[in-house]
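User: Hand in any protein.

Assistant:
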Amino acid sequence: MGRSQTFQWFSQFKAGRTLIDDDERSGRPVSSSTPEMIVCQIIREDRRCTIDEVNMLVGIIHGTCHRVLTEDLKMRLVTSKFVPSLLSVDQKQQ
């Protein structure tokens, strides 16, 4: 938030504003589809998908795809499919 926006909020609250929510804005709502979201969706649909298949579908390089899976989504490779890295004891036995 810039200095002028902060000053505007301060002025509005000084004048009696009580709501802290942003005012409604015109136009379309913002939607984003980041590589992390797309990779996550692909892996959820087919856990046996390889990194090479994912990076071809998404259009990102192998290293970035691997980083998204392991660091951003906290997944690891277990018997040729990606799973969340925090598994319970029962899940590990399966």
Observations:
- The chain has a mean pLDDT of 77.
